[in-house]
Amino acid sequence: MSQFRGCCPSRRLQKALQFLSVCPTGLLGPGPFLMAFLKKYLLPILMVLLAYYYYSAHEEFRPEMLRGKKVIVTGASKGIGREMAYHLAKMGAHVVVTSRSKEALQKVVSRCSELGAASAHYIAGTMEDMNFAEQFVAEAGKLMGGLDMLILNHVFYSPMTFFNRDTDMVRRSMEVNFHSFVVLSAAALPMLKQSNGSIGVVSSVAGKIPHPLIAPYSASKFALDGFFSSIRKEFAVTRVNVSISLCILGLIDTETAMKGTSGVYEGYAAPKEECALEIIKGTALRQEEVHYSYMPWSSILLQNPGRKVMEFLSTRMFRWDKLKSNQKSP
Length: 330
Ligand SMILES: NC(=O)c1ccc[n+]([C@@H]2O[C@H](COP(=O)([O-])OP(=O)(O)OC[C@H]3O[C@@H](n4cnc5c(N)ncnc54)[C@H](OP(=O)(O)O)[C@@H]3O)[C@@H](O)[C@H]2O)c1
Ligand SMILES: *[C@@H]1O[C@H](CO)[C@@H](O)[C@H](O)[C@H]1NC(C)=O
Ligand SMILES: *[C@@H]1O[C@H](CO)[C@@H](O)[C@H](O)[C@H]1NC(C)=O
What we know:
It is found in: Endoplasmic reticulum membrane. It is a single-pass type II membrane protein. Its EC number is 1.1.1.146, 1.1.1.201. The protein contains 12 helices and 7 strands. By secondary structure, it is of the alpha/beta class. The chain has one domain: 3-Layer(aba) Sandwich (Rossmann fold). Helix 3 crosses helix 9, helix 5 packs parallel to helix 6 and helix 6 runs parallel beside helix 7. The structure holds NADP nicotinamide-adenine-dinucleotide phosphate (NAP) and 2-acetamido-2-deoxy-beta-D-glucopyranose (NAG) (2 copies). The site of NADP nicotinamide-adenine-dinucleotide phosphate (NAP) has 27 residues, from helix 3, strand 5 and helix 8. One 2-acetamido-2-deoxy-beta-D-glucopyranose binds next to loops.
């Protein structure tokens, strides 16, 4: 399940209640009767639901959960990926990191060793090459002797501009941000099934709502939701105990994002260190979605109850028994 992320929950709750107490008048502007009804029943109900939402907290995260775990982080030469590698190292995990730049990875790996990683290795290469993606997973598995967690994080950022019929940009975006994620997951699945492992898929608010000026990027992030949320359902039916956590991030203060958005998009950026930690926590806790953003409301607004209802209804229409007897499970 998704969880509200960012600063401490109690502060969030306070803000939420504050918002709720002004929201009906502001948004609905209804007559006095409806208002009275809302004040009397709806607000208390919403508050209870909200409180439940926060405090029905699932298992608590403990850094020891990662001690000795075998973890891959892609796109770990800088930004959020590098911060994830550092957190994992401090928690005592084995890490294998990757990206294109060997020099940067070397530094990340030696810092990981200093920070206390059980082991730290890098394998450099480009995720535009699907053969590399596949071989990378096999080699990383050999280096660590298995795999518990696969964190898919690397990204090709298309420049912020109107779509000017540059279809090559869309293809590249789909290859690096989507297709290679699929290839890496497929290659890692046998190992993850053995370890009851987890996949963390780093996506974006732009993978939940349309974002003008970054159509190729947005398309690739939407694709992640379509693919990974679909196979999560298959895993549930076929009893594949590998969790998939789709991480929905708002603007984060990485160098690339700050440069890329400067002068085009204004918005507060959340810190990459905390963001990295929240991705690891959510993935370790096997949450379906992890939300992390400076905007406290985005997590609740992106829940999309209509989708949940439709998912429930459509899942019931499949003839699972028949399918399972005819097909090989993943
Ligand atoms: N920062 C934000 O505002 C924000 C918001 C929402 C979601 N996200 C998501 O968070 C994740 C990390 O973003 P970030 O801002 O931390 O990015 P970043 O700092 O630019 O890091 C991107 C990483 O991907 C690697 N990479 C790029 N192209 C690659 C390729 N072709 N093959 C292999 N590796 C490649 C880069 O290393 P090399 O250059 O060495 O290859 C680098 O390690 C992404 O999935 C992004 O979509 C970020
Ligand atoms: C995976 O989960 C199953 C069922 O809970 C359990 O029997 C098995 O021992 C677990 N395997 C590992 C490696 O944790
Ligand atoms: C799936 O794996 C997790 C992590 O090892 C374990 O806690 C859980 O009990 C397993 N669930 C099932 C249904 O096997």
